[in-house]
Structures are given as structure tokens and as C-alpha cells.
Design a protein that fits this description.
Length: about 525
């Protein structure tokens, strides 16, 4: 039955409809083709599995950043009701808003040493616990003093979380996707800000005594998911190598890289980087008396972190209701609704950075971002200074503020954290990244704590003109001090800073922005 149409040829081989099959080698080739197809199928399955696994790790590691974003977003509206309920002064408002960033310095400084001691993963869990306690204290606070205690605890937790997430993601990510994945913490900050704005709007109808407490209490929820994540995500393979747990590091790399040859190559690079470190010299001493290459890394890392904040992004987000009020919006619910538009813009445009950061590189995105922010900040200042209150000034103010946060999200927002997590040597990475986070949080706190006072002295519009000048300086900083790191392993980037010409921008210049625009 099954042999119909099959004949035996003169050599004892079978053919189909008089077409000889040829020698037995043909069967072998067919077997080989099946084997190749099976290998290709297994390879594709591993690629998909690896990408999903690394993506999941990046998402879970970024959950702490939701806490920071939510606090920034929710406090912009909650402060209106806290003022009504606890009768706090304008100076107390500035302190309450800005103290979180200042106190987070403690978490950022301690986070580097803590993560070197107990691991990157458990440092993230420690951060979530501290924040939960702080958020609970704020929720039930009967007075300004108790509210400040909770705010301080929350700040310490956020300092730990903001510092460690980009380091962890950079250390587990494959080179080809490191930029996109390390941008995830900034995505989650933006998501948190948007959720904070939505929470403001959703609970603004409650009484002044209850509304701000509910707004702050909702911020506890993301940290619950972090507890679950700790039992899913692995430890950083680079930290494991530093602890001489090489086989465990190999197992993690096998889950986060697409083929075995890449696993061994990465493991060899990590071991070499760990082995060449001067283990006799304390990390803090190396940071205080850096080599020329390390000095360049510190200038780049700390500088880009400071510029991210002194251009006024947190003031824009924290005090967006005050900005729109200066433009002419008076109704409280309309003010909060306008801030939701800011949150949507900030969150939506970061997706552009995620798509492009590993394609066009870090530096072109930074150019587009800093130039665009300078233009929008100038626009906000001119609108508030020269135009009368009315529908046109309101529309322009909303447009320029949304444009500013959009350009921030396209470049300096996520790229800042990517750079500081990938440029430092393995042994110094956690604590050096912590110094960058210290600069970021210090600048954020100073801006947030002085914005209302400076605006009262020189007007809101005048304050934004100052921000635009600082933003223009950030363009020059990127040109002078930021090299391109796209497509390089963490160990290759360390070598990049040994070459002063490359460090000063020999690889990527302003002309590369044309390539980005064409994209």
C-alpha cells in the first residue's frame, strides 16, 4: 500500500516515480538537514526564553523606581491638601517636598557598600522594606513632625533603590540590549509619576484630611510586588564572580545570554576584570585619589547625573500646578488634570528612547534631548514673563512644559542612568554609581527646596530662564565629556576611558544627530 509508485533501481535503491534517490549519502544529508533544523529550532527557543527572562528581571528590578516616581507625582497634588489639613507654611512645603531627595543621599551612599556586601538583589529588597515603613508612617501622620519622619525613612529607601536598579540590570543584560533594558528604571519612574498624577485626580474629591493620606498610602503597593520578585530574579553574575562563586555566575549567564560561547566569553571578561582590580586598595581610596581614566569616568558619571536634575525636571514635575497657575489656570481640578497631561507626555516619549538607544546610541539621544529641553525651558520662561494670563498663555505653558518633559524622557532621563551603570570598573561600579546617584539626589533636593523661594524672588518665568541657560551648558558637557558606549561590553567600556581621544568624543559627534533624525 504505502509502496505505490516506488520502484527499485538497478543499484538496489528506491526511487519515487522513476526519479532515483541517488546514493545513501543523500539520506545522510537529509538526516543532517533535519538535525540542523532541530538545532536552529532549539536556538530560537533559547533566544526567546532568554529575552523573556532578562526582560522579566529588568521589570522586577525596576519596581523600586515606581516608588520614586509615584512620590514625585503624588506630592505635587498631595501638598495642596497637606497644607490645608496641617496648616503648614510655604517654607515647610519646600522642606517636605525637597527633603526626600536630600535624605536619599544616605541611601545612595550606603547602597554601594551594602550591595557589595549582601548582593544587588537583596539590596533592592532592603530598599523596599525601608520605603514601606516610611510610607506607612506618612499615611497615619497626625502632625508635620511625624510626616517628616516618614518622609525621611522613605527617602533613605528610595536612595537605595534608585542607585542599585540600573547597576543590577546592566550587570545581567546582554551587550546588544543593555541600553534598552537599563532604561527600564527611568520608564518606571515615569510610570510612577503618571500614577501619582492620576491618584491626585482620583482622590481629590475626598476631604482634605483623608485625601492626601489615601494618595500616599497607595504608594505602598509596588513594594509588595518587589518582595515576590526577590524569589524570581537571580543575583548579578558580576557580583557572584567578585565573591568567587564562579559556577553560580555561569548558571546566571546561561540564562541571560543566547549561546554558550557568549557565556564563556562574558565569564572570562568578568573574571579578568575582577582579577585585575587592586584588591589591596580600599574602594573609597581609589575614588578619592582616582587614576586619570577613573577621573574621566567620575566626571562623566557624576556630571551627567547632576545635569539631569539642575535643569529643573523635578521642579517642573513637583510644582507643575504652580506653573500652570502662573499661566492662568485657577480651578484646582483643572490644575490637576493639566498635570496628568505632563505625566502622559513624560511616560509616552521614553518609549522612543527605549527603541533607539541601542540602535543610534547614547550620545545622539543626549544631543536631541538637551537641545530640545533648552528650547522648551526658554519657551516656558518667555511665555510666563511676557504674555498676559489667558487661554493662549495657558496653551503655550502646557505645550512647552509637556515638550520639556518629553525631550527629557527621550534622552537625558534614561541615558543618564544607563551611562552611570556601565562606565565604571566592576570592583568600583556599585559605589561609584552610588556617588552619581548622590549628585543626582542632591541637585534634585536643592532645586525642589528652593523653587518656590526663587520663583517668588524672580518670578516663575525668570526661574525657567535660568533653567534654560543651565540646559544649554549640558549640551556642551555632552560634547566634551560623554563618549559613545553603544554595542560594547562593560569590560570594553572600561578600556574606552583609557583612551583620552575617544573619551573626548572621537567616536560620536553632533553630526550623528542627522542619523537619528533620519530614523
Amino acid at each position: 500500500m504505502g509502496m505505490a509508485g516506488v520502484q527499485e533501481n538497478g543499484h538496489g535503491e528506491m526511487g519515487l516515480s522513476d526519479f532515483p534517490l541517488g546514493s545513501k549519502n543523500k539520506y545522510k544529508r537529509m538526516d543532517s538537514e533535519f538535525t540542523d533544523d532541530d538545532d536552529q529550532y532549539q536556538l530560537e527557543r533559547r533566544k526567546k526564553s532568554t529575552r523573556k527572562y532578562v526582560f522579566g528581571c529588568a521589570v522586577f528590578a525596576s519596581l523600586n523606581n515606581v516608588l520614586l516616581g509615584y512620590d514625585v507625582g503624588v506630592m505635587s497634588g498631595a501638598i495642596l491638601f497637606i497644607q490645608q489639613d496641617l496648616k503648614i507654611t510655604e517654607v515647610q512645603q519646600e522642606v517636605l517636598v525637597g527633603v526626600l531627595s536630600i535624605i536619599s543621599l544616605i541611601g545612595s551612599i550606603a547602597g554601594g557598600r551594602t550591595s557589595d556586601a549582601i548582593g544587588r538583589k537583596w539590596t533592592m529588597g532592603f530598599a523596599a522594606v525601608i520605603f514601606q515603613i516610611g510610607a506607612a508612617v506618612m499615611t497615619i501622620a497626625p502632625s508635620f513632625e511625624i510626616l517628616m519622619v516618614g518622609r525621611i525613612l522613605a527617602g533613605v529607601g528610595i536612595g537605595f533603590g534608585v542607585m542599585i536598579a540600573p547597576v543590577y540590570i546592566a550587570e545581567i543584560s546582554p551587550t546588544i540590549a543593555r541600553g534598552s533594558l537599563t532604561s527600564f528604571p527611568e520608564i518606571f519612574i515615569n510610570l510612577g509619576i503618571l500614577l501619582g498624577y492620576v491618584s491626585n485626580y482620583a482622590f481629590s474629591g475626598l476631604s482634605a484630611h483623608i485625601s492626601w493620606r489615601v494618595m500616599l498610602a497607595v504608594g505602598i503597593l509596588p513594594s509588595v510586588f518587589i518582595g515576590v520578585a526577590l524569589f524570581i530574579i537571580p543575583e548579578s553574575p558580576r557580583w557572584l564572580v567578585l565573591q568567587n562563586r564562579v559556577e553560580e555566575a555561569r548558571l546566571v549567564l546561561m540564562k541571560t545570554n543566547e549561546n554558550n560561547s557568549e557565556v564563556e566569553e562574558r565569564l572570562a571578561e568578568i573574571q579578568q576584570a575582577a582579577g585585575t582590580a587592586d584588591t589591596d586598595k580600599p574602594v573609597w581610596r581609589e575614588l578619592l585619589s582616582p587614576s586619570p581614566a577613573l577621573r574621566r569616568m567620575l566626571i562623566t558619571g557624576i556630571g551627567i547625573q547632576c545635569f539631569q536634575q539642575i535643569t529643573g525636571i523635578d521642579a517642573t514635575v513637583y510644582y507643575s500646578p504652580a506653573i500652570f497657575k502662573a499661566a492662568g489656570i485657577e480651578d484646582e481640578s483643572k490644575l490637576l488634570a493639566a498635570t496628568v497631561a505632563v505625566g502622559v507626555s513624560k511616560t509616552a516619549f521614553i518609549l522612543i528612547a527605549i527603541i533607539l538607544i541601542d540602535k543610534v546610541g547614547r550620545k545622539p539621544l543626549l544631543y536631541v534631548s538637551t537641545i530640545g529641553m533648552t528650547t522648551c525651558l526658554l519657551g516656558v520662561g518667555i511665555t510666563l514673563l511676557l504674555m498676559k494670563e489667558g487661554s493662549i498663555s495657558i496653551a503655550l505653558a502646557i505645550l512647552f512644559v509637556c515638550g520639556n518633559v518629553a525631550f527629557f524622557s527621550v534622552g537625558i532621563g534614561p541615558v543618564c542612568w544607563v551611562l552611570t551603570s556601565e562606565i565604571f570598573p566592576l570592583r568600583l561600579r556599585a559605589q561609584a554609581s552610588g556617588l552619581g546617584a548622590v549628585g543626582n539626589r542632591m541637585c534634585s533636593g536643592l532645586v525642589a527646596m528652593s523653587f518656590l523661594s526663587v520663583s517668588r524672588a524672580i518670578t516663575v518665568g525668570g526661574t525657567f530662564l535660568i533653567f534654560s541657560v543651565i540646559s544649554a551648558l549640558s549640551v556642551a558637557f555632552v560634547y566634551k565629556h560623554v563618549p559613545e558606549t553603544k554595542g560594547k561590553s562593560l569590560e570594553q567600556i572600561e578600556l574606552l576611558f583609557q583612551d583620552e581621544y575617544t573619551f573626548q568624543g572621537g567616536e560620536v559627534q553632533l553630526g550623528d544627530v542627522e542619523h537619528l533624525v533620519q530614523k
